Amino acid sequence: MPHSLIAGMTCCGKSSVAKLLIPRWRKRTWNGKPYRIALLDPLRDPSWPLADGDCAFTNADQFLLYCKSSIDKPLAIFVDEGAQTLARGVDYNWLTTQARHWGHESHIISQRPTDLTPQVRGNCEWLYLFQTDCNAAKLLSMEWNQPALLEAVKNQRLHLHLARRLAETHRYKVDFATKTLVFLGDACTPIQKRSASRSKRVKSF
Known about the structure:
Strand content: 25-35%
CATH class: Alpha Beta
Shape: globular
Number of strands: 11
CATH topology: Rossmann fold
Largest sheet: 9 strands, mixed
CATH architecture: 3-Layer(aba) Sandwich
CATH superfamily: P-loop containing nucleotide triphosphate hydrolases
Number of helices: 6
Order of helices and strands: EHEEEEHEHEHEHEEEH
Low-confidence stretches: 194-205
Structural class: alpha/beta
């Protein structure tokens, strides 16, 4: 199962997009079994759209034990404040390594993706990248092999780059009215942008 990393500066929309993803899991199954939500939320945010059968934790160790014990029921796992709650403990790499064998899919939310272990980042297939700092953008662009991610430093609030390994990167924005991600277009690398700019200047003459 593909895992996801949701990264960016504070108040840019990370938790908002994570909350939009949760209802989609209500309609999915694994080996005929419906998904439940497992949430690690140290901030105790009451706005997470949880339902009966879902579980929320503030303690990381208890959360990990619960996820590991759910071997017969697939989980959509959401970890808020990932860099702080997971720290660099080796055991937490399980969320993006062995967890998939039980049908679990993890979503790691972090302001500072550079503080996550390389194993956690490297086992995430999807990247939702909001505005971030230059160091994080450079690291993630190299790990996903996506130069267009360097432009994420310029993202406005609620705007993001959505990247998938071995695929193209696209730009979206979070739309609260429709509770969806609105497509803004393909993401361009800095070189592509300069080429397009030169092309426009030539045409203007």
